[in-house]
Amino acid sequence: MLKGWIGLRVLKTAIAVAAAVGTAQLLNLSEPMFAGVLAILGVEVTRRSGFRSLFERLSASLVALLVSSLLFELLGYHIWTAALYVLLVFPILSRLRLQSGIVPGSVLVFHVYGAGAVTVELLWNEALLLLVGLGWAAIVNNLYMPDERKRLQELRRTVEGRFAGIFAGMASVLRDPGCLWSGGELLEADAAVREGLERAMREQHNRPWQPDFYWTSYFNMRKRQLEIIGTMMELLSYVYDHERLPQGGLLAELFDTMEGDIRSDYYEDRPRAALNGLRASFRTMELPRTREEFEVRSALLQLTVELDRFLDTASRLKKRRLEERG
């Protein structure tokens, strides 16, 4: 229960806060709790975002400390001087994309305002608070990040299993147009692909020195294939409650062989060759006798076009991965 209640980020934040405040107290810094606030702000979800926020907050805070010190010394320690600082500095930080440093920088400004004078001791104290708070956040943030690869492998198997189920379901409808198939595998595959994309991006950002772009490419490929499958299922609706056609049976046989291609890491010509052969056989068959048959056969032909797109989407990634390994 406790594990589900307290997440990894919360635990890391607690450690960073305790270390930052404790270090600030050991150094006899003024306002040591501010180091804890900085630690809270500095702990991020991924290493990459942690490095980025460290740079943004450190840069913005130093700008805030410098500009506010100059304004207070030149114009006096007044409320309107603090308001002038906001009017001048906030737009600059926003344009420089340092928005995340506005809050910690503003706390430093009010430290200067409360002190009533800019001294070397004050500037040194504020600089150390920044280093201690943000430093401990960076250290704790980089100590441990969960490895997503095991879960990514599980999600890959789930997605491929659902894809295989989708093609099996479509094959059943093509063989028996009266067959009732819910297509629930599509929703399950979509949920797995979404989670896979999220975890793949997190894994990539957690290891910026050795990013694994395969997983983001893989789940983006599956996302595009899901869109194609959606179109295929719309075309399949033309087959329901119509007379079974030989073209549908032939296409069903091809769909039955798709599981091997879906699970394969390497590009293979067999599905494409089988698809080309199927199209060639369609051309040798008699023309439709009725409008209804024409519409159904048109939908079946369009299904082969979408299947070609499905195969092409996967083949690009598989060929690229083979080149990288070779």
Name the descriptors.
single chain, 326 residues, mainly alpha, Four Helix Bundle (Hemerythrin (Met), subunit A), 2 domains, 79% helix, elongated
CATH class of the largest domain: Mainly Alpha
Q: In which range does the helix fraction lie? A: over 70%
Helix-strand makeup class: mainly alpha
For this structure, the CATH topology of the largest domain is Four Helix Bundle (Hemerythrin (Met), subunit A)
Task: Give the SSE layout.
Layout: H1 2-5, H2 8-26, H3 33-42, H4 47-75, H5 79-95, H6 102-115, H7 120-143, H8 149-175, H9 184-206, H10 213-236, H11 246-256, H12 258-263, H13 270-284, H14 291-325
Describe this structure in words.
The protein has 326 residues and is an all-alpha fold. The protein folds into 2 domains: 2-143, no CATH class; 149-325, Putative aromatic acid exporter, C-terminal domain (Four Helix Bundle (Hemerythrin (Met), subunit A)). Helices cover 79% and strands 0% of the residues. It has helices at residues 2-5, 8-26, 33-42, 47-75, 79-95, 102-115, 120-143, 149-175, 184-206, 213-236, 246-256, 258-263, 270-284, 291-325. Helix 2 runs antiparallel to helix 3 (33-42) and helix 8 (149-175) packs antiparallel against helix 11 (246-256). The longest helix is centred in the last third of the chain and has 35 residues, at 291-325.
